[in-house]
């Protein structure tokens, strides 16, 4: 029974079923070709890298009780900056310059995250509204950078980020995995995770307990910005171009969904990095599976919607009390809950 | 920033010496944001009229209502929700669902007089459902309506993800109908959807200003707990505002389908953000309890005027519209913070 009660049991079960379906329907689930791992499973891992990165940042932000709607726009901006600079290089294949440009693009994303963090923590605007500003304006900025065009690049080192392999594993997935491991170490092996949760639980109480709540809040938005920027680079490297309109479009919703599936409460105060990763991979697997077994792709969104509705309701204590606890709760307690 | 110079009024007004008889005109705090928006609108219009030929033609203003009719209707519904301190992210998706459903049903030969009430009812029901989840299960408004966004857009895409033409006679007749307004020398022509949008604003303003329901909306936005202790119907009002917002979104979807004589599941993508932005720029306080439909109207006109100016200029990248709206959003939110801080 304890395994059934684990919050990650149901998502894991669904993921296992989906992977099982894939194993039977696709001829190439996992195989080795030209020294690389290859097949549907690898496609899933590679394709989920941007979502894992974005959802990772989103988890930290949500843990402090906030939300970041601007991740899609940050992705678009970082991809646009990188592709614009690379397309102006004399030698697009020079590894040093590409690395420098990647650094610049991530630096820009960190700055955008800082802007969000300052608006939330220092100016005191509600997170959903503060990040809405960058969400609206950011895409405009990305369109200005690319001048409304799609910038194509022919840079092998840059493309490696999206479609390359290292030790037979996709580079994109390695980057995401490294970010996940680093985050888990930093939040669970140091006091940082505890501090994040305490800020999410009550910023005022944390501040009175001597925690730099403001600094921590700013920090999570900076991290979320940087991770979104990295995801934007992987996305644009994968298609070898900067598309300021479709890059990261609606990814904030997928990221929030991944976080919720992973068992992180949207009101803040507790979070699970492993759950988020599971959620992100689940969403990507779902997308791949729906295509693979010939269901209309539109059903994908509908299915996601049903999952979100069910998860949101199941997270609400009032819902559980009213629907499942009808016979257990005392009448007085129910009165209070109803009020 | 002239607006900041106006704000210190609160100190006198909120203090104990309320019965000062002689008063110089100083705007009430709750009117400061709306006056700032009005000033901005006037400045933008004068700048446009000074720089571009034919900008002072009355048709420019009349066309603002025509081009932004959908946004206006949706933003009016959003105003109700934001006044109670909530937020409705599902409106854009409800628009997609309505246009797709309208087009599909009309294509299937349903009579227009059945389709119209059916889709409007559906929008209202979606809104009511979200309101009920928010009230009864204490789910955060933005989470509940985000789930509603997913659901409505998923349904719309599931029905049909391609653009569906509408050939129904009633719909095309309304779409082609033109109304002559006796403004200026030659008169100005506009479409029925603009009239519907203006009517929506007038009705909403009347409801908020003169009905018990309107006062309840403000009271709940001011402080839901106090409203409850005063015996106001908090639950009923909350569900009602989301129902209104859903209805307005469905109406917006119908206007969309009339304007373009087609239905498309990707229509209305991101419109919820434009609507929220219009409310904020129009001085509706996001924490609830303060703001006017007139402000929302001004907010919609400001964002419409930005697009008009960019169209007139021709040389500007259309991406500037988004950036300028973002900057205005920022400026007005910061102004809201300053005004509310001083009020405390």
From TrEMBL, chain A:
The chain crosses the membrane at residues 12-32, 44-63, 94-112, 118-137, 158-186, 216-235, 247-267, 273-295. InterPro entries: ABC_transp_permease. It is found in: Cell membrane. It is a multi-pass membrane protein. PANTHER family: ABC TRANSPORTER PERMEASE PROTEIN YPHD-RELATED-RELATED, GALACTOFURANOSE TRANSPORTER PERMEASE PROTEIN YTFT. This is ABC transporter permease. Its main location: membrane. Keywords: Cell membrane, Membrane, Transmembrane, Transmembrane helix.
């Amino acid at each position: 029974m304890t395994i059934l009660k684990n919050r990650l049991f149901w998502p894991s079960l669904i993921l296992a079923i989906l992977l099982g379906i894939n194993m039977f329907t696709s001829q190439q689930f996992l195989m080795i070709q030209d020294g690389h791992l290859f097949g549907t499973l690898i496609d899933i891992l590679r394709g989920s890298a941007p979502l894992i990165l974005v959802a990772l940042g989103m988890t930290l932000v949500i843990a402090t009780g906030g939300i970041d709607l601007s991740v899609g726009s940050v992705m678009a901006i970082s991809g646009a900056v990188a592709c614009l600079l690379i397309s102006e290089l004399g030698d697009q294949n020079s590894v040093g310059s590409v690395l420098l440009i990647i650094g610049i693009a991530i630096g820009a994303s960190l700055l955008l995250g800082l802007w969000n963090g300052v608006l939330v923590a220092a100016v005191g605007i509600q997170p959903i509204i503060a990040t809405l500003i960058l969400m609206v304006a950011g895409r405009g900025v990305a369109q200005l950078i690319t001048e409304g065009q799609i910038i194509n690049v022919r840079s092998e080192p840059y493309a490696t980020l999206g479609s390359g392999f290292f030790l037979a594993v996709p580079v994109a997935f390695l980057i995401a995995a490294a970010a996940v491991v680093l985050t888990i170490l930093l939040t669970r092996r140091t006091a940082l995770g505890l501090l994040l949760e305490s800020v999410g639980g009550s910023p005022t109480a944390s501040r009175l307990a001597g925690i730099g709540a403001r600094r921590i809040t700013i920090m999570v938005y900076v991290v979320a910005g940087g991770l979104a920027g990295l995801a934007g680079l992987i996305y644009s490297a994968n298609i070898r171009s900067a598309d300021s309109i479709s890059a990261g479009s609606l990814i904030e919703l997928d990221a929030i969904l991944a976080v919720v599936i992973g068992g992180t409460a949207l009101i803040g105060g507790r979070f699970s990095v492993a759950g988020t990763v599971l959620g992100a991979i689940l969403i990507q697997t779902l997308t791949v599976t729906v295509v693979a077994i010939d269901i209309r792709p539109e059903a994908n969104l509908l299915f996601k919607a049903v999952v979100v509705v069910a998860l949101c309701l199941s997270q609400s204590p009032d819902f559980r009390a009213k629907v499942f606890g009808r016979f257990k709760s005392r009448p007085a307690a129910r009165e209070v809950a109803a009020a | 920033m002239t607006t900041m110079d106006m704000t210190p009024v609160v100190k006198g007004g909120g203090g104990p010496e309320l019965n000062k008889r002689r008063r110089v005109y100083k705007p009430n705090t709750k009117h400061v944001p709306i006056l700032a928006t009005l000033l901005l609108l006037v400045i933008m219009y004068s700048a446009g009229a000074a720089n571009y030929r034919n900008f002072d033609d009355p048709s420019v203003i009349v066309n603002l209502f025509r081009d932004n009719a959908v946004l206006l209707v949706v933003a009016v519904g959003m105003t109700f929700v934001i006044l109670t301190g909530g937020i409705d992210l599902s409106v854009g998706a409800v628009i997609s669902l309505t246009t797709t459903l309208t087009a599909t049903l009309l294509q299937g030969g349903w009579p227009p007089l059945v389709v119209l009430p059916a889709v409007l009812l559906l929008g209202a029901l979606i809104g009511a459902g979200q309101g009920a989840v928010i009230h009864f299960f204490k789910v955060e408004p933005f989470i509940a309506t985000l789930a509603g966004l997913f659901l409505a857009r998923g349904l719309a895409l599931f029905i049909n993800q391609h653009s569906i033409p509408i050939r129904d006679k009633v719909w095309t007749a309304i779409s082609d109908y033109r109304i002559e307004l006796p403004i200026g020398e030659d008169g100005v022509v506009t479409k029925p959807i603009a009239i519907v949008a203006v009517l929506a604003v007038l009705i909403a303003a009347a409801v908020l200003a003169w009905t018990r329901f309107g006062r309840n909306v403000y009271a709940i936005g001011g402080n839901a707990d106090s409203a409850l202790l005063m015996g106001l119907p908090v639950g009923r009002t909350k569900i009602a505002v989301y129902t209104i917002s859903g209805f307005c979104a469905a109406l917006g979807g119908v206007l969309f389908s009339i304007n373009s004589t087609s239905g498309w599941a990707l229509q209305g993508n991101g419109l919820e953000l434009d609507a929220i932005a219009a409310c904020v720029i129009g001085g509706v306080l996001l924490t609830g309890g303060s703001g006017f439909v007139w402000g929302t109207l001004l907010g919609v006109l400001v964002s419409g005027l930005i697009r008009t100016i960019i169209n007139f200029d021709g040389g500007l990248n259309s991406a500037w519209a988004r950036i300028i709206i973002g900057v205005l959003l920022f400026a007005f939110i910061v102004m809201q913070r300053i005004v509310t801080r001083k009020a405390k």
